TrEMBL record, chain A:
Part of the ABC transporter complex PstSACB involved in phosphate import. Responsible for energy coupling to the transport system. It comes from the Bacteria. The lineage of its organism: Bacteria, Bacillati, Bacillota, Bacilli, Bacillales. Its main location: membrane. GO terms for biological process: phosphate ion transmembrane transport. It is found in: Cell inner membrane. Residues 9-250 form the ABC transporter domain. It comes from Paenibacillus roseus. This is Phosphate ABC transporter ATP-binding protein.
From TrEMBL, chain B:
GO terms for molecular function: phosphate transmembrane transporter activity. Residues 62-280 form the ABC transmembrane type-1 domain. It comes from the Bacteria. One of its GO terms (biological process) is phosphate ion transmembrane transport. The keyword Membrane applies. It comes from Paenibacillus roseus. This is Phosphate transport system permease protein PstA.
């Protein structure tokens, strides 16, 4: 049915170790373009660790070791020869707690593109505007672009972080519980935004909130104790899971 | 004793300790200021000291102290910030890094008289730099550099990890992340720490006795050629600093008003250090606002 879908990113036999402890065990998962994949599972199941290895953020953690393959187009991300700096430009990331730079709203967005070579002021202005528009933040911020981003509300900050990541034109956006620190109204806005953004990007989202996974995602992967238990279309996984463990988890019997 | 009583007793003890410390500090400051402030005048701050007559000032010493401080910072800030960045961001955790850290700690707790004598043997004699501002600055570097390294390292470690990750995730290099994202956040702490560390430099005497020397040549404040021996800007001339001067006139001052001069000079020293502290805090906040566009 999905045979014509293009792959955005594909993990093969991915394992992550923290010291001698294996946090993620031989996971193979394909993520399609223009789709939202939700990663669900109880705390400590390895879903965030898995997500963080997709743009090699785990490199920053001493003692973390990743094996396997992660393919974007022709490149294996885990190949030591791959330029990790270039790679990360292709993969945007949004964190659980909004983490705008301690800079102005404008600078938060322009910072990335400018570093990647766009010096023209007019071009930067356009990028800032279009990124903010895509993140549904333009109307609220257009009159105060040069004020500190830290003065925005939590929900606005999180949308700014999304705008910041799309400003460098990634293909994939990783989201690590992007709405769990926000109030319900802001959460609704972020979810709406995710649905908008999937027209252009491959989105992978970690969430603790199963209703959220059901609302925003096309496919869902259920993680448990470092293993991938089930990966299927969201509707199928939530209504008719093929694994007993998945059924137990989504019906609230544990986790 | 019931939990409530224990709580009350603990509260009283802690408050009395705090009151004691504040009273001690206030008393000390008040004593120095009250004794010395009457002696401070424009003339006192600008004129040269007298050897045996009354009415000498501390002009050259005050200038020497400030100039020595500037020289020391020129040496220690780039080295200290660089090493601090290395320690926090590049050094791999392990024995070697721990060893460097230990050495840095040991260096900063050296007795200053030992550093002074080391300076005399190595910097003054062996390197042939003589008693000079530059020798003094190098000796002070021994104390100041470890502080700078530690201040920078802690300031950079204090930057939230998400800030660093956000920058790296945008595809920025590690260096750009450090300079453009982490440094602006760390800078107020670094600046505050630097100026606080300068306070120690300003008050240091023992390490300077044998390095910067205990005399000042007759300075000509209209001569701004740094190579001329009578120019105040010449870094290779001997220079008695304010703290050294206080020590000297207290121990071997011949002027009839030596005691008042010492008291006045001490008050000046304390006031300058206080000014340093307040400026440090104000400047740190100012820089943070400027760099981060926050109001």
């Amino acid at each position: 049915m999905q045979a014509t879908q293009e792959l955005g990113l594909s993990a093969k036999d991915l394992s992550v170790y923290y010291g001698s402890k294996q946090a993620v065990r031989d996971i193979s998962l394909d993520f399609e373009k223009k789709q939202v994949t939700a990663l669900i599972g109880p705390s400590g199941c390895g879903k965030s660790t898995f997500l963080r290895s997709l743009n090699r953020m785990n490199d920053l953690i001493s003692g973390a070791r990743v094996t396997g393959e992660i393919w974007i187009e022709e490149d294996n991300i885990l190949d030591p020869k791959v330029d990790v700096v270039l790679l990360r430009q292709k993969i945007g990331m949004v964190w659980q707690r909004p983490n705008p730079f301690h800079k102005s709203i404008y600078e938060n967005i322009a910072f990335g593109p400018r570093y990647h070579g766009i010096k023209n002021k007019k071009q930067l202005d356009e990028i800032v505007e279009s990124s903010l528009r895509k993140a549904a933040l333009w109307e609220e911020t257009k009159d105060r672009l040069h004020q500190s981003a830290l003065a925005l509300s939590g929900g606005q900050q999180q949308r700014l972080c999304i705008a910041r990541s799309i400003a460098v034109k990634p293909q994939i956006i990783l989201m690590d519980e992007p709405a769990s620190a926000l109030d319900p109204v802001s959460t609704a806005k972020i979810e709406e935004l995710i649905t908008e953004l999937k027209q252009d990007y491959c989105i992978i989202i970690v969430t603790h909130n199963m209703q959220q996974a059901a609302r925003v995602s096309d496919k869902t992967a259920f993680f448990y104790m470092g293993d991938l238990i089930e990966h299927d279309h969201t509707q199928k996984l939530f209504t008719n899971p093929s694994q007993q463990q998945t059924d137990d988890y989504i019906s609230g019997r544990f986790g | 004793m019931s939990a409530k009583t224990a709580n009350r007793v603990a509260t009283i003890v802690i408050i009395s300790v705090a009151v004691f410390i504040v009273a001690l500090l206030a008393g000390l400051l008040g004593f120095i200021l009250v004794r010395g402030i009457g002696h401070i005048s424009f003339d006192f701050l600008t004129s040269a000291p007298q050897t045996i007559k009354a009415g000498g000032g501390i002009g050259p010493q005050l200038f020497n102290s400030l100039f020595l401080l500037v020289l020391t910072l020129i040496i220690t800030v780039p080295l200290g910030v660089g090493a601090g960045i290395y320690m926090s961001e590049y050094a791999k955790p392990g024995r070697f890094t721990d060893f460097i850290r230990l050495i840095v700690e040991v260096l900063s707790s050296f007795p200053s008289i030992v550093v002074g004598l080391f300076g005399l043997l190595v910097i003054v004699n062996l390197f042939g730099l003589g008693f000079s501002l530059f020798s003094g600055a190098l000796a002070l570097t021994v104390f100041n550099l470890p502080l700078m390294v530690r201040i920078t390292e802690q300031a950079i470690r204090g930057v939230p990890r998400e800030q660093k990750e956000a920058s790296l995730a945008l595809g920025l290099s590690r260096w750009k992340t450090i300079t453009s994202v982490m440094m602006p956040i760390a800078l107020p702490t670094i600046i505050t720490g630097t100026i606080l560390a300068s306070g120690r430099v300003f008050g240091e005497a023992a390490a300077l006795l044998f390095t910067a020397g205990m005399t000042s040549p007759r300075l000509d404040f209209s001569n701004w050629n740094p190579l001329s021996p009578t120019s105040p800007l010449n870094p290779f001339r001997p220079a008695e600093t304010l703290a050294v001067h206080i020590w000297k006139i207290n121990s071997e001052g011949l002027a009839p008003d030596a005691a008042q001069i010492a008291a006045g000079a001490s008050a000046v020293l304390v006031i300058v250090v206080l000014l340093f502290n307040f400026t440090a805090r104000w400047f740190g906040r100012y820089m943070y606002k400027k760099l981060t566009a926050s109001k």
